[in-house]
Amino acid sequence: MYKKSIIASLMTLAATSSFAATDSCGKVQIADMNWNSASLIANIDKFILEHGFDCDAELIPGDTMPTSTSMIEKSQPDIAPEMWTNAVQALIDRGVAEKRLSIAGRSLSDGGEEGFWVPKYMVDKDPSLATIEGIKKHAKEFPNPEDDSVSAFYGCPAGWGCQISSGNLFTALKLEEAGFELIDPGSSAGLSGSLSRAYEREESWFGYYWAPTAILGKYEMVKVDFGTGIDKDHYINCIAENSCLDPKVTMYPPSPVYTVTTMAFAKRAPLAYAYTAKRSFTNAKMNSLLAWMEDNQADGQYAAENFMLNNKDIWSKWVNKDIQAKIDSALENL
After folding, report:
1. Are 141 and 282 contacting, i.e. CB atoms less than 8 angstroms apart?
2. Strand 221-223 and strand 207-211: pairing?
3. How far is it, in rounded angstroms, from Cα 115 to Cα 221?
4. Which of 15, 17, 63, 265 is deepest in the core (most CB within 10 A)?
5. Mean of the per-residue pLDDT values for the chain?
6. 113-239: which CATH topology?
7. ∠ CA 248-215-309 to the nearest 5 degrees?
8. Which helix (H) or strand (E) holds 252?
């Protein structure tokens, strides 16, 4: 269903933009989402659209649900650079079907990645820890720092969607029976802090995490193999649902992460839209960019300028030579 919506969106766009006589970019609002990778991409888009396409680009605060709703109902903002569509799939489908939204392309070419992870140095010492059976067999190697009589599994922070999926998989994998306690880290900072502390001390750690993130850019982690492959239907219909009564084991499916624009922007500025369709990052590259952001305490704008200055081999593939020359000129004046 979702793939059909994307294809329909692109076909509609091709039909409407093919007869566009001019490319009037004008004022463009870009959603600056409240996590680092999305903020970085938003600032990169602002720089390229301003200096390469002569757009009057503006960043506005955004988040997944309110941004997608506003784009459908008010046709604002024009661009959501990093939309994790699993959380709002029905809403995006409706926007595409009503020709209010267009799916430009994958902002993360690998898709968002989720899983249960252990440090690579633990797997190097005992390769069985790369499997869930090995983890359960050696549960005592993961003592809870608050109570070493039980083992620690660090789940997703309360209130996040991944709290539901990680909790259901904790149950499906029978980790409590193996001696593990599900720990709520309280926040993203709490979860990343527990992992970074353990890694710096080469201590044990087992828990949920996702990519792209600075943590997985800085620390080598191994995703634990559940030995089941991916059952996407069961994940969507049960594991990701709070009402899941009989969770079964499945690996996390990749999360589609797209750049979404309003159809009005796609029609008004087809050349700028084409840029948003080409602009994409691998998880490995984004992990490294986010690690740099964290190490340098950089905000989205500073990180975007650093990316533009040092990664011409990447961004030059997203634009033609005329646009590239204009961007080069802007970079010389930074």
Report:
1. no
2. unpaired
3. 11
4. 265
5. 91
6. D-Maltodextrin-Binding Protein; domain 2 (3.40.190)
7. 130
8. none
Asked if 261 and 276 count as a contact pair (C-beta separation under 8 A), the reply is yes
SS (H, E, C) 39-75: HHHHHHHHHHHHHHHCCEEEEEEECHHHHHHHHHHHC
Domain ranges (residues) in the chain = 2-110+256-332, 113-239
Q: Which two tokens stand for residue 246?
A: 């009989």
Q: What residue has token string 């566009």? A: 20
Residue 237 DSSP code = I
Structure tokens at 290: 């986010």
Dihedral angle of Cα 296, 286, 186, 206, to the nearest 10 degrees: -110
Say if residue 18's pLDDT is above 70.
no
* Cα–Cα distance measured from residue 239 to residue 63, given in angstroms and rounded to the nearest whole number: 23
Indicate the SS3 state at residue 186: coil
Measured distance CA(30)–CA(39) in Å, rounded:
10
If 0-12 CB within 10 Å is exposed, 13-18 middle and 19+ buried, where does residue 84 land? buried
The torsion angle over the Cα atoms of residues 4, 229, 108 and 210, rounded to 10 degrees, is: 130
Residue 12 has pLDDT above 60, yes or no: no
Q: Which residues pair with 152 in a beta bridge?
A: 181
Positive or negative torsion for Cα 111, 117, 121, 125 = negative
Q: CA angle, corner 153, sides to 110 and 175, nearest 5? A: 100
Of 158, 168, 159, the closest CA to residue 226 belongs to 168
Fold topology of 2-110+256-332: D-Maltodextrin-Binding Protein; domain 2 (3.40.190)
Give the range among 18-32, 42-56, 82-96, 298-312 with minimum mean pLDDT: 18-32
pLDDT at 217 (0 to 100): 87
- Same fold for the domain at 2-110+256-332 and the one at 113-239? yes
SS3 content of the chain, % helix, strand, coil (to 5): 50, 20, 30
3-state secondary structure of 167: helix
Rounded Cα gap, residues 327 and 304, in angstroms: 13
163 pLDDT more than 60:
yes
